[in-house]
Structures are given as C-alpha cells and as structure tokens.
Design goal:
Shape: globular
Mean pLDDT: 95
CATH architecture of the largest domain: Alpha-Beta Barrel
Structural class: alpha/beta
CATH superfamily of the largest domain: Glycoside hydrolase, family 3, N-terminal domain
Largest sheet: 6 strands, mixed
CATH class of the largest domain: Alpha Beta
Oligomer: single chain
Helix content: 25-40%
C-alpha cells in the first residue's frame, strides 16, 4: 500500500513488502480481528491465548501487574499471535503504568510545574525505556489535553496544564523521547478534553470552544505532536460542535457526534486538515460517551467507518465482534476502509520493527532486562530532581515558613483523603509518612479526630490557639475517571475540620494530588501544591517546609480557580 514510506511510519522497501504480503494473505475474519485492541487486567493465560489464537486481535492493553505477571502475560500473547501484537499501556507518569515495580516519575502536571522541557523528555525517556523493557510497544500518552476547566474530573494532573503553549512544548518532547525506545506515542484525547466539567466515561462530553479558539489551543497542540512524529492518535468520546458545524455546514444538532464516531472530526479534521497519516484508535468503547450516541450494532462499525483504525476494548466480546462483522458485511465499513485500517495497523507494527524482533527472538525481552532497567540510579535521580523543581508555593503568610520545632513544635494534622477508586487510588500512607518525618524533625504531631458536637459545644478557639503552634492540612484527593467533580467533603458535624482557625493559628495547606483546593479553602494563607505523592515528592516537601530547599515550581494552572477570594 502507498504512503507508508512517508511520515510517520517511514517504512523501507522490506517493511512495506511485509505489510502488503501480510495484508494480502489475510481473510476477512483475520482483518476484523486486527481492528480490536482488548485489555488484560491479570495474567490469565487461557483468556490471553484465546485473544491471540481465536480472536486474532491486533493488540492488547495491559493494566499494571506485578512484573512476573506482566512478563508472562505478554509472552503468552506474543507466542500465540500469528501476527506480532501491539502491547499497550497507560505510561502517562512512569513505568508504574504497566508494572507495579515500575518508577512513578511524576504526574504530567508535576513535570509541567518545573517549566523545563527537558523534564518532559525525561518522562518520555523513562516511560519508553521501562515500557520497552517488559515488551510494551505502545503508550497511550501523552495526554495532549488542556486543563481549561478546573472542574473537569478527568484531566487535572494528567495534563501538562492550562497553558496551551506549555502543553504543546511538553507533549512534543515526550513524543520524541518515548518513540526513541520503539514505543509508539499516542496523542489523546482528540479533539481535546478539559473544557467540559463532565466525564466522557459517563456522558458524551463537549469541547465547546469556538473554531478559532480550538485552532490556537488544542489544534496547535495536536499539530505539534503530529509534526514531532507521533505514530498514533486517540479519539475521545468528545464533541466539538464548532468544528463539526464548520466542516459540515447546516449539520443538525442531533447529528453532531463525538470524535470516536464522527467522520468530519476524525477523517476530515484530523487526517485531511491536520495531515495525520498514522494510526487512529478510539478511546475505550466501554465508556458511556460512546454507548449513549447510537445503538451498539451501529456504533461499533461506525467507529471504523468514521476513520478510526482500531477499536479499543469491548463492552461484550461476542456482541462487539458480531457487530463489527455485520458492519463489514452490510457495507457500513467498506472493503477499502477495512483494508486501509488494517494496513495502518500493520504499518505501525512494521514501523516498530515487530516482525524483525520476532525473527530475532527479541519481541519479548528477557525478564532480567526489566529488573536491571527498573533499578536505574540515573532515573531515580531524575525523579528526585523533578520533585524538587515542581513543588509550588502558591501563596504564603509572612513569618510562617520555614517550619521550626522551636516555633511550631505542636502541630495539629488534618488528613483529607479520597476514597478508593476503580482503577487507581491515592496512596493510603501519606499522612502517616509526613507525620513520621515531622516527628523525626522534632515536632509533636497530633492527628485531628472529629468529635461529636453541635452549636454551643464546639471546642473554644482560645483552647485551639493554646494547644497548637501550627495547623497542617494534607489533602490527598485525586480526580479519577468514572466519577464527577472532586471537591473536599468536610467532616461532620458542621464541617468540623474546615480551616476556621487561620486568623488565630498559623495554618499551612498542602495539596498533593489536586491543584485546585483553594476553591474550598479560600482563606488559607499558606498553600502549597506538589502535584503528586511519590516518596521523592514527600521527601522534597519536608525539605522545603523546613527551609532547607527553596520552592522552585511555577503553577501550570490557575490554582485560584478564577476566584478573587482565593487570593486573600
């Protein structure tokens, strides 16, 4: 097939022949199988073998597992696949996106807070190196979204911030770095999440920017990623009405669809106007954002007809395969579109050298290779450097910092923590870890325990001022998919843990996983964002609280949430 010798695949004659010969030998059923990228939550050898041998899928995404399980799962998939598989993972913030033993470099927002493009390259380098070491060849990253709306429940610390220029620069460097390791980057979530305050997992969300505003923000970010050579793009279950109306004059509102199902967004805008020639994959088809738009039998083949080349996950394996077959047989997916999509899948595999690696026996790395890579001292030093440069002092009450046992020996510690999430939860030991570190420094730290009590029986302000030299809030609440807005739920009764003592007791508020908590604690006078809670970040936080290290981070978002009172 023509075109694969050009960007982004750059196939040589041998690789092009492999694509053409492999495609020519495939049955219709073989091609349909290649359209699917399924998911592995665990090392279930029988299930994974069925993916490879019976379904003949084009790829599988691995959720984080212990290293031994990840190694075994990938080996099963590749050993039993007639055509080498794409093995994907969410390597947004480090190798821990695929193996529990992987490094957590830091969230993209933490990287952005350093305002250092080289740090984004380091993130991409670590993700590519650790992913490749276990056999991953495709990362669903970087997140190319712009965190326009602080209420958005998905983007937040997963983005490089709210400044389109910083997002553009950081995403580009990630793409370049990760792909040097033979791991395909994936710009997501086209046409861009972060404007709506709703979650595409739960509803088809809307990027409501005017066309000109989209062009100079999200459009510029995706354009830069494409120019950097990104091999793949992920379409979101996100509508962009201004672009749809511009591209299809007179389109009825009911016909405006999310990019995952929209021909004008995926083919006309992404491929024709932005010039993307790589592989396009839908976001997870399990999300309500796709499911609510049309009957399943229509949506499954429509995703490919719209211009996506791969279909991510299934709601019901048998049903979705049947829907895709029927879409091919009915002509919803034309023979030309089917061959084009499968050709892109094969071209990506060829660009990643998967056929050559299979011949050489290096498609699945030896387990000891991963162990050596995951223990790299150099990359551990990068993580410490990122944490040191990212932590941001948003606002400061004069005379409170640095902390000192001589002035602040008695500390009252409030821990505000998220509940367990479906995919990923915050670490549960943050408050205890910080308490232990402060006690080692010579402080006496008491954890706040809400007592029952109502009006007329609450603890007297003078008693609190007499008992403590400092009040420290640690907020450990991360936005996660499949939920709505993340806000602080103050304790009962009567919001007993609200920071009401800021005028009488020095108070420091540290937010570890969400930069927008000033919305719910506007009168706090000293506020710090860390954008993460790995060990290196907690160590750096204590160093800065103690005054042994300066605050160096620059806010990549508006931590004041556009409110005047949060600046007081």
């Amino acid at each position: 097939m023509s075109g694969f010798q050009d960007a982004p695949f750059f196939l040589n004659d041998e690789a092009t022949r492999w694509v053409d010969n492999t495609l020519a030998a495939m049955s219709e059923e073989d091609m349909i199988g290649q359209l699917f990228c399924l998911i592995a939550y665990e090392n279930d050898a029988d299930l994974l073998r069925s993916y490879a041998e019976e379904r003949k899928v084009g790829g599988v995404m691995c959720r984080p597992m212990p290293l031994a399980d990840t190694d075994a799962a990938i080996k099963t998939l590749q050993d039993h696949a007639a055509i080498p598989m794409l093995i994907a993972a969410n390597l947004e913030g480090g190798g821990n996106g695929v193996v529990h033993e992987g490094c957590g470099f830091g969230s993209p927002l933490q990287v952005a807070a350093t305002d250092d493009e080289d740090m984004a390259a380091r993130l991409g380098d670590l993700c590519g190196c650790e992913g490749a070491a276990v056999g991953v060849n495709w990362t669903f990253a970087p997140v190319a979204d712009v965190d326009v709306n602080f209420r958005n429940p998905v983007t937040n610390t997963r983005t490089f911030g709210s400044d389109p220029d910083r997002v553009r620069r950081m995403a580009r460097r990630y793409v370049e770095a990760v792909q040097r390791h033979g791991v395909a980057a994936c710009l997501k979530h086209f046409p861009g999440d972060g404007v709506d305050e709703r979650d595409q997992h739960l509803v088809a969300s809307v990027n409501s920017l005017a066309r000109e505003d989209w062009d100079r923000t999200y459009g510029a970010v995706f354009r830069a990623g494409i120019e950097a050579g990104a091999l793949t793009v992920m379409t979101g279950h996100i509508l962009q009405p201004a672009c749809s109306r511009d591209l299809v004059p007179g389109i009825d509102d009911r016909d405006i669809l999310p990019a995952s199902l929209s021909y004008e967004l995926t083919t006309t805008l992404l491929k024709d106007r932005l010039g993307f020639r790589g592989l396009v994959v839908t976001d997870a088809s399990t999300m309500a954002g796709m499911a609510v738009c049309m009957p399943r039998a229509q949506a499954v083949p429509q995703a490919i007809a719209a211009g996506n080349d791969m279909f991510l996950f299934t709601r019901n394996l048998d049903e979705d395969f049947d829907c895709m077959r029927e879409g091919v047989r009915s002509g919803t997916i034309s023979p030309q579109r089917l061959r084009e999509a499968v050709g892109k899948i094969l071209a990506l595999k060829a660009a990643l050298q998967l056929p050559r690696k299979r011949r050489e026996g290096t498609l699945v790395p030896a387990p000891d290779m991963a162990e050596a890579v995951l223990a790299s001292p150099e990359r551990k030093a990068w993580i410490r450097d990122c944490a040191d440069k990212a932590i941001t002092l948003v606002k400061e009450e004069p005379g409170v910092l640095p902390l000192s046992p001589a002035r602040h020996r008695r500390i009252l510690l409030h821990a505000i923590e998220s509940k367990e999430g479906f995919i990923q939860s915050v670490r549960a030991d943050v408050a205890d870890t910080i308490r232990s570190k402060l006690e080692t420094e010579g402080f006496a730290v008491e954890r706040f325990d809400p007592k029952t009590g109502r009006e007329c029986r609450m603890r007297a302000f003078r008693d609190v001022a007499a008992a403590y030299d400092l009040i420290l809030y640690l907020a450990n609440m991360r936005t996660q998919s499949n939920q709505t807005v993340v806000r602080i739920e103050w304790a009962q009764p009567m919001g007993v843990d609200v920071p009401v003592h800021v005028a009488s007791v020095p108070t420091v508020f540290v937010s570890l996983e969400n930069p927008y908590h000033l919305l719910d604690a506007p009168r706090v006078r000293t506020f710090i964002n860390t954008y993460g809670s790995n060990d290196e970040t907690l160590d750096a936080l204590v160093e800065k609280l103690m005054g042994r290290s300066p605050f160096k981070g620059t806010s990549p978002v508006d931590p004041y949430c556009g409110m005047w009172d949060t600046r007081l």
